[in-house]
Every structure is written in structure tokens, then in C-alpha cells.
């Protein structure tokens, strides 16, 4: 991987490689300010280092608030078995990287820090994406807006895609049978 980029002291801590701009996916996103080579560390995901218990407390509180306001506002990232990073801080521009079923970035945990790195070459002005890797527990609460040809309709890790497709097909078949029985 390429050398780590230093973060600027901007309000949203853009990196040397990226900046916050308007995004069609979810209001704001992170965009490349110059061409980025595959394997370049783009930006660190920063925030409060918290225990798993505190993570659960904050996560559910943020999730409940998001349900009330319509905002997707849970920015908790798994760090290790004991700790997470709550990235809900103004200096964490990386929290604005949107999900895509066709990501161009991936998160790496290196020496207790979370780095977002390019998994392919990225062109200047291209939006940065990574797959959030959610499980299927509450998939219906997380519709995907990425519009990728590979999009499965919900934000979940690629490991879950085949299971999700089976669930969605079964749901569609059930709804079709229900409509036929009421006709």
C-alpha cells in the first residue's frame, strides 16, 4: 500500500486525497480530489474509541434517533473484539463515505487505526464507496441507493447476498400467491 496521507485541519478533516461534496446517494459523500492509485490509503476513520457495551448503547440510541429524523446517523465501526470507533464526530469526513454494492474502497485495521484504502484505481472527482458489510438481521431498515448494476437492494456484506436474494425471492413468491388468493 502507498504511504499514509496526512489529514488537513479542515472542519471535516478532508484528506490529501478526498473532500466532502454533495452526493446523489445520501446528501453528502467523499470524493477524490485527484487520481488515486489502487492500494493508496486515502483517509483514516477517526472518532471516539469505545467499549462494545458503550457501542451498543450509542448505536441503539443513534438508531432510534435516525428512525425519528429519517437520518442515517449510526457511524460506529468495529475496531477489534473489545472496542469500536464511534465516528460521529465533525472531524471524521470518512463517516460520509457512502455504501455501494460495487465499492472502490475497503477498510483496513492497521495498528489500532481504521484506514480507508483504494481497491482499484479511482479517477479524480469520483465518489468513494465501500461495502458497509452489514449482516441481515435488520436488512429491511437499510435499503441500498447505490444504483450499481450489482446492487442487491439492501446494504449488506457480499457474504450475505445469496441468502438475501433467496429471502427476497421467497417474499416475492409469497406476495404473488397472496395477491392471487385475494383476486
What distinguishing features does this structure have?
10 strands, 183 residues, disordered N terminus, single chain, alpha+beta, 24% strand, three-stranded antiparallel beta sheet
Notes on the protein architecture:
The longest helix is centred in the C-terminal third of the chain and has 22 residues, at about 160-180. The chain has a domain at about 135-183. The chain has a 3-stranded antiparallel beta sheet with strand order 3-9-8, with no helix packed on it. Strands 4-6-5 form a 3-stranded antiparallel beta sheet, with helices on one face. By secondary structure, the protein is of the alpha+beta class. About 25% of the residues are buried. It has 2 helices and 10 strands, in the order ββββαββββββα. Residues about 1-10 have low confidence and may be disordered.
Concise structural overview:
With 183 residues, the protein is α+β, with helices and mostly antiparallel strands. Helix content is 22%, strand content 24%. It is built from two helices and ten strands, in the order ββββαββββββα.
Which outline best applies?
A: globular
Number of helices: 2
Distance between the termini: 60 Å
Number of strands: 10
Explain the layout of strands and helices.
Elements: E1 18-23, E2 27-32, E3 41-45, E4 48-51, H1 52-69, E5 76-78, E6 83-86, E7 98-99, E8 105-110, E9 113-118, E10 129-130, H2 161-182
Amino acid at each position: 500500500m502507498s504511504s499514509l496521507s496526512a489529514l488537513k485541519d479542515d472542519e471535516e478533516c478532508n484528506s490529501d486525497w478526498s473532500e466532502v461534496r454533495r452526493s446523489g446517494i445520501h446528501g453528502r459523500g467523499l470524493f477524490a480530489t485527484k487520481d488515486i492509485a489502487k492500494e493508496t490509503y486515502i483517509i483514516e476513520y477517526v472518532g471516539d474509541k469505545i467499549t462494545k457495551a458503550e457501542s451498543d448503547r450509542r448505536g441503539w440510541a443513534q438508531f432510534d434517533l435516525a428512525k425519528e429524523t429519517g437520518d442515517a446517523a449510526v457511524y460506529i465501526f468495529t475496531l477489534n473484539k473489545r472496542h469500536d470507533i464511534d465516528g460521529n464526530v465533525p472531524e471524521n469526513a470518512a463517516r460520509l463515505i457512502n455504501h455501494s454494492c460495487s465499492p472502490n474502497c475497503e477498510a483496513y485495521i492497521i495498528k489500532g487505526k481504521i484506514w480507508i484504502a483504494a481497491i482499484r484505481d479511482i479517477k479524480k472527482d469520483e465518489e468513494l464507496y465501500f461495502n458497509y458489510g452489514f449482516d441481515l438481521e435488520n436488512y429491511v431498515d437499510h435499503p441500498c441507493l447505490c444504483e450499481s448494476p450489482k446492487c442487491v437492494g439492501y446494504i449488506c456484506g457480499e457474504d450475505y447476498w445469496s441468502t438475501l436474494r433467496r429471502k427476497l425471492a421467497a417474499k416475492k413468491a409469497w406476495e404473488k400467491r397472496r395477491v392471487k388468493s385475494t383476486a
